[in-house]
Amino acid sequence: MRVMGVDCGSQYTGYGVVQSDGLQSNGLQSNGVKGGRSLVCLIAGAIRLAPREAMELRLKKVFDGLTALLAEYRPEVVAIEDVFYSVNAQSALKLGHVRGVAMTAAAQLGLPVVAYAPLAIKSAVTGYGRAEKSQVQSMVARLLKLDEVPQPADAADALAIAICHIHTAATLQRQSAAQR
Hints:
Layout: E1 2-7, E2 12-20, E3 39-48, H1 55-73, E4 77-81, H2 89-108, E5 113-116, H3 118-126, H4 133-143, H5 153-179
Parallel strand pairs: 1-4, 4-5
Antiparallel strand pairs: 1-2, 2-3
Helix pairs in contact: 1-2, 3-5, 4-5
């Protein structure tokens, strides 16, 4: 399974493509859990947006950047963070615009989009839904066997979203098999 995670933001939009290569040779996840999958980071980074640039130009930059990455890395699914409530309505609106553009880029290529709540993402990566940002970033590096934490932080967040989808899909697959 190949998943692109997208961390939507109005200044940086993080992206990361993670591939699950099936079970490791010892049948363990990189964190030691039996029955896990080997995870490989294919690319991670962020699309930097200039705050002084017109919103429509920033959105075009996100759309063009994600479309190019989707075409090159050909994920099976795009995972994004679910909508959350913000005190600042203006910030929430900007985030919603970027999120819509990310979803449109995926839809244009016929890719499904799945959304996960921030608590679910943290829980899938660290085992604790209220983990600190630094804990999530460290665990992402560990799960993907990276020498250092991906930078910027938005890239690490995007990888966490992709890992969340891979773990969730594997759990659903096991549950489905058990019901048969």
